[in-house]
Amino acid sequence: MDRAVCERLDRDCPLAPFRERFALPEGLLYFDGNSLGALPKSTAADIGRVVREEWGRGLVESWLDADWFFLARQTGDAIAPLIGASAGEVVCADSTSVNLFKLAASLLRHSEGRRTVVTERGNFPTDVYILEGLIDLSDGKFDLVLAEPETIVGAIDGDTALVLLSHVNFRTGAMHDMAAITAHCTAHGVPAIWDLSHSAGAVPLALNRWGVEYAVGCTYKFLNGGPGAPAYVYMAQDVIAAYEPVVTGWFSHANQFGFEDRYRSTAGIEKCLVGTPPILSLRAVMHGIACFDGVDLDDVVQKSRTLSELLIDLADERLAHAGFVLASPREPARRGSQVSFRHPEAYAVSKALRAAGVVADFRSPDILRFGIAPLYMRYVDVWDAVDALARIMASGGWMAHSTDAPEAVT
Amino acid sequence: MDRAVCERLDRDCPLAPFRERFALPEGLLYFDGNSLGALPKSTAADIGRVVREEWGRGLVESWLDADWFFLARQTGDAIAPLIGASAGEVVCADSTSVNLFKLAASLLRHSEGRRTVVTERGNFPTDVYILEGLIDLSDGKFDLVLAEPETIVGAIDGDTALVLLSHVNFRTGAMHDMAAITAHCTAHGVPAIWDLSHSAGAVPLALNRWGVEYAVGCTYKFLNGGPGAPAYVYMAQDVIAAYEPVVTGWFSHANQFGFEDRYRSTAGIEKCLVGTPPILSLRAVMHGIACFDGVDLDDVVQKSRTLSELLIDLADERLAHAGFVLASPREPARRGSQVSFRHPEAYAVSKALRAAGVVADFRSPDILRFGIAPLYMRYVDVWDAVDALARIMASGGWMAHSTDAPEAVT
Question: CB of B113 within 8 A of CB of B158?
Fold first, then answer.
């Protein structure tokens, strides 16, 4: 393997043309699309029109004339095929954290004496915090179980009120077998919420086929929706009818503009809406999703794997002696679209990489994380990043960088 | 009073120059700034830069380099002087509904056996719905009291767990005496949340001076933050320390990037944050707030009153015989920045007005609502709108418009 081989792989790659949809800074090697996805050119081109015409000229009438009222649902319908869901099962609004709260609060209302709430130790923090807040609110009705990845299935039984798992672990990239865990939950009558934040747009997702009932996810990673873009909520068609909202805002009222004094829930997936969604940010999400138009999702999954394998192979060859230990699973089916390494100086190394034009993430305490965004990343990017890292380690260049004050976002 | 007088009032108005800060459609008479505020020119000019440079070029590093991490707090600090609060008492994120839920959920946790939750019958629906959801979640621990405006104070006593009131009623524009009601609540040890959605940027607000402890409000009305722009939460400095979040997302963790497994709340007003806020929409809010730079808020309040009085006087003279009944208080100190009329054909009339180039709101069942946005509205706008309405009523022009299917937003 050398750089010329990577160049040939890029030439032959069916996804290569789609890189043109993104406005990537010249010369930057961006391995952080799993934290903040790159800017679609169409977002940059359109956002001024949305502001000047839809808001500035259309004013309040754009709620109907520009479909603002339906944007949370329309965006959800656009997300649906990317996660193996159907139209009418997804809406896009609020943050991932708030969406988790909505679902978990409602599902825990019908726990019928079951006591445990199961999640993974090392799950993305906000997922655990949301559960802690709800359990605290229940005055001790539930116990939080922080299971290790390999003991999760064993922790789910007839006493489990709720399971909340991230499909892909934000630190290691380890990916759960969603179909198998879902089947186990179903067998025990346990509702499960899946957090797809690090999955959608990069790894195989077949929510309907796998029998998944509830999920949330963010749109600013592999879906390229922009910083802090609204997140989404999924409910399978056959659980929507029984779902009773706890966070009962006017956007889920059966007759929103009747301005009735008492709450009556609407019938569809809009049950998961609460207040007015941020329209400018939602418009950006629609452009992010549109970057997948005409893309074969099998190609996306395949490229995620081949890019990741290239990175692992090159690291085995050129970085193992410098103290990097692979923290992600080697088996592709157990790995999300990222490759993480442990290194005692991961923070300083991430800074040295940045100085060399490579953006990768440090994650406390010792993780160096390379996100793989298949829609716009190239094989040569992987080659050049490993080459830069090998040079930094050979020269001791990382020592010039402070080891204090971690700074980054998921 | 004739149109020439209005033209002279506009020439002499100290706020007249600030109209230039807004991109208003030529020829439109816009009386809906209390639903969706007009577009600031600086938003239109800057949003493309935010997208292309902060997101597109800065990518994930803009969380620090472009201050995204601090934007919810910075925006809150910018809102603070507009509501009589101090820096460090306000953050901007999530929707008004979600912010109400956060505060109410936490305050009801410490209700110490008190049973009633008091709000106003005819309050903005989402405020009531959020309370209903929380009361339902409490399994009957609380009773919802929907008081009439004149019986609210009498309904608040030692058995009251929480009060939630909108300062200005969205239908009638009736404005509560926030200072007096707050004093009454304080005397009975009752926490009160004020919804400032229809107040901020148009009527006098002195939250600190009035002893107000908790408030929320939206930014897309008189604050011109854009459609669905994030809302804000206010807590007085002396209640922040005791406040314990129930919706416990990672943005309020004491050590957010330590990624700790258990939740520990931060110390400041950031306790009211949950998940990642929508950055593009927050940037727009900052521009909306900046439209108040150099503006004397006393001038804003004064102009809101004189414009409203002009509208009421002209309506008395030219519309009373056509069946319009003033639904807003006549006394300026009891009225927010809107003038509402009842009319049995309010919906059809609003449509006929729109056809004549006047945007005013219908509110179910029979309200025609004229919002007064003092930063960009003119005396001649009021004259021309009443003139158009008088002509419509004289000609019977409203009859051509359907009376079905109300459509509008607050």
Answer: no
Grouping H, G, I as helix, E, B as strand and the rest as coil, residue A64 is helix
Using CB atoms, pick whichever of A51, A121, A226 lies closest to residue B44: A51
Contacts with B220 from chain A: Cβ below 8 Å: 276
Contacts of A146 in chain B (CB under 8 A): 261
Closest partner CB to A249 (pick from B126, B261, B407)? B126
| Under 8 Å between Cβ of A43 and A225 | no
Interface test with B, best of A57, A95, A404 (most B CBs within 10 A): A95
Question: Cβ contact (<8 Å) for B101 and A274?
Answer: yes
pLDDT by 10s per residue, chain B, length 410: 899 999 999 999 999 999 999 999 999 999 999 999 999 999 999 999 999 999 999 999 999 999 999 999 999 999 999 999 999 999 999 999 999 999 999 999 999 899 999 999 999 999 999 999 999 999 889 999 999 999 999 999 999 999 999 999 999 999 999 999 999 999 999 999 999 999 999 999 999 999 999 999 999 999 999 999 999 999 999 999 999 999 999 999 999 888 888 999 999 999 999 999 999 999 999 999 999 999 999 999 999 999 999 999 999 999 989 999 999 999 999 999 999 999 999 999 999 999 999 999 998 889 999 999 999 999 999 999 999 999 999 998 888 886 554 554 44
CB–CB of B134/B119 below 8 Å?
Answer: no
Q: Measure CB to CB from residue A228 to each of B96, B257, B278 and give the nearest one.
A: B278
Q: Which residues of A are catalytic?
A: 124, 195, 220-221, 369
Residue B397 to residue A112: CA distance in whole angstroms: 60
Owner of token pair 């978990």: A104
pTM of the predicted structure, to 2 decimals: 0.96
Comparing alpha-carbon positions, the chain B residue that sits nearest to A94 is B94
Quote the CA–CA distance of A190 and A77 in Å, as a whole number.
27
Measured torsion, CA atoms of residues B379, B383, B386, B388, in degrees rounded to the nearest 10:
-120
Query: Both tokens of residue B67?
Result: 């201050």
Cβ–Cβ of B280/A275 closer than 8 Å? no
